[in-house]
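User: Can you predict the 3D structure for this chain?
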Amino acid sequence: MALPRRKANDQYGGVIMAKKRRTPEEASIDSSTQEMLVLAEGLGIGTAFTRADDMAACPIGADGLCCKICSMGPCRITKDGQTGVCGATVDTIQARNLVRAISAGAAAHSDHGRDMAFTLKAVANDETEGYAIRDIAKLRTTAAIYDIPIEDRAPKEIANDLADLYIAQFGQQKGELALVKRATKKRQKLWKEKGVTPRGIDREVVEALHRTHIGDDQDAEHLMQHAIRTALADGWGGSMIGTDVSDILFGTPAPVLGQANLGVLREDMVNVVVHGHEPTLSEMIVAASQTPEIIEYAKEAGAQGVQLSGICCTANEILMRQGIPAAGNFLQQELAILTGAVEAMVVDVQCIMQALVGLADNFHTDIITTSKKVKIKGATHIEFNEHKALTIAKDILRYAIDNFKNRGKVHIPDDRTDLVPGFSHEYINYMLGGSYRASFRPLNDAVMSGRIRGIAAVVGCNNPRSQHDQLHTYVTKEMLKQDVLVVETGCGAIASAKLGLLLGEAGLDQVGPGLKEVCEAIGIPPVLHMGSCVDNTRILTVLTQIVEEGGLGDDIDQVPAVGLAPEWMSEKALSIGTYCVASGAYVIFGGSSPVGGMPDKVSDSSLVSGLISEGWEKLYGGKLEFIPDPDEMIKATLEHIDKKRAALGLPEYDPKRFGESGDARMLELEGLPLSERKAAIYGLPVAGD
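Assistant: Here is the predicted structure, written as structure tokens:
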């Protein structure tokens, strides 16, 4: 179904031939998304998909070649040798733009961590309503890392001291962040030698903005050094704090059964969709929705109860801890409203489209903002406060229930898929060895033997300029065929969930023989859901524990592992990618590079793109590259994994060596006589031959 043709800009401002809108099938591989896009077209309603088709990306800005940090500009660099009014070169401009983007991403995730730390402090001092310390073991383990006394002390005493330490990390001016001690000793030493160990979270973000002000830092390499420091303040600071405190207050995730996709919405229930990133709100709405008074209030309104579901990273937070279904990922937020079945979409911070309010005007849905940091014109604002959390959560739900009577025609796609999320690094440790011998040894051994070729973290956002979910799932499925264990967070995890890849029994016929043996033996899915985007710090922890277990090098840069963000779109993704690189990882982004080459050069490279790839690899052992083609992305990933295997002296990957063990193989052999079974398993001649 071709939609109206549009005009698009050429590379630098002229008008070129008209470009048609994509069909729903071209816009997304997800059938429920396609169904809702057909509905939107019939209603004459635009979405992020059609807006992306109608608005060509500015090519100058996309390559980081536009400087607008002072009123002498904006200055557009379109020719080799050209400078801004102040004389800023293309290298300086690109570096400044990238540093600002990384610092904004670091600020967003770290501010999330700050709020979690303040909530922990309030809970420790009995100043909140409805919250409790749910994981005392995690509290004690975490506090002990920082030498906070734990023996003969009440949990709230320990929590109070831990909260104080975490809060102090934001305003600290000198020294080192306390959390960097959780990195390998070798990595800590390297950061100190390079002068990039973060001093304080806020200090690094502020300095990033200062350095990029007109007339300040004008050396691209020097600027990018501070980009590393700022990102580290996020990954080994604010984001790690956010994950730690969420686990302590709401429980460390463990496998739980859930569902994903728009089909989780219920026609006979009041549907409340929570969207954003902070679990303090969503966890309390989950608790409130299960109280007898709210259930009865919904029944009095004519519904069977309240059906909660999540969008984006809030979906992952409540999915992995409570089993609350995920209605979808980032690009499905508008589509949930298009169903006509959502009484309220309750949002807090990050990744919330302003278009939601205008879209909701076509339906009965209320958009409810809750954060003091986020208001959207036309939305209802009910400010959330942890001190009265349960009361406010109930008020929000009553508001939604009162809207049930205004519901009109409903169109809910019949698409929902089971999944098992909740693989925290603590649970991975447990599942590999049990309560008394928990260890990463079996995982390390599987990599060393070649059953697992390597590890890929496929994470990040959706981007409407690419086919929704296609890059995430294509890369994931190709990795699995090559015996690469995949861990996922964020919207990428929800994409795989919708294809059934987050179930133990699902997809094993598409998994390489060695990885299949491991999955069957341990009882895990081939793709491990590790949480929301802020939980990428869990992946850092896993890699650090792999190193500490031994046999795969003495730092992260030696582990055969790669991070991929195939459909990235946010500044947070750039911060995540940078702190992973600084930790020693090879990181590949799909789509276009924000520091592309000059238009009149044959090469697409620039000084800054060289710095973040080859330059950073020489300094930190990790590199950041932008590879638009998924097959090239896969090729680069496997080449890197194999290179790291060779450097460690591990056997060359050979899928033919495995596949003769595991549960499935045992079932095949079950009916054979004992002598034939032994012969098949151990490669011996059959007795009597």
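Residues 382 and 396 are 7 Å apart (CA to CA). The chain has 27 helices and 18 strands.
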